[in-house]
Amino acid sequence: MLSLFSHFFIIALAFVLACGFLLVILSGALYQTWWTLFVVATYVLAPLPNFIFSKCSGNDDYYLSSNTNNGFKDFGQFLTAIFIVTGVCLPVVLAHASVISVPAMFMSIGGGALVYSTIIAYSTFFANEGDDF
Q1: C-alpha angle 63/66/70, rounded to 5°?
Q2: For 38, how many CA atoms within 13 A lie in the half-sphere containing its CB?
Q3: How many Cβ atoms sit within 10 Å of the Cβ of residue 25?
Q4: How does DSSP classify residue 63?
């Protein structure tokens, strides 16, 4: 059963996510360029390698102790970092090449940061590390 705090947290995350998408869409609509929508794709795809490769690295391996990192998990974090850096730097490169304007760049980066921070907050708040039994 969800408490009142978790209901408020879900509503707040939905509001922040909507604001992030609104910023990215407005950065394209106000300045008549839709290249900024690629930021949404990078921020939505960013948590996927981390999720997939963390499931590939099971903690029940005999040869791996808890002190060593697993290569699969490290590679997933590396790919996630690549997507995050791409999401931040793509609008900067597009603005430098004069494909988009500088205000559209700031709106796109801000909206992408809101979208990705919402995804991270949701996944950490509702992560089940183990059973309560």
Answers
A1: 65
A2: 16
A3: 17
A4: S
Under DSSP, is residue 127 helix (H, G, I), strand (E, B) or coil? coil
Residue for token pair 């029940």: 60
**Are 19 and 114 in contact, with CB atoms under 8 Å apart?**
yes
Q: What is the pTM of this model?
A: 0.77
Task: Work out whether the CA dihedral 84, 90, 95, 97 comes out positive or negative.
Answer: positive
Between CA 76 and CA 46 the distance in angstroms is 10
Task: Tell me the two tokens of residue 65.
Answer: 């102790």
Please compute Rg for the chain using Cα positions. Answer: 18
Distance CA(58)–CA(25), nearest Å, equals 39
Q: What are the pLDDT digits (tens) for 17-70?
A: 999 999 999 999 999 988 988 888 888 888 889 888 877 765 555 555 555 567
With a CB cutoff of 8 Å and minimum separation 6, the contacts of 95 are 101, 102, 104, 105
Asked if residues 40 and 112 have their Cβ atoms less than 8 Å apart, the reply is yes
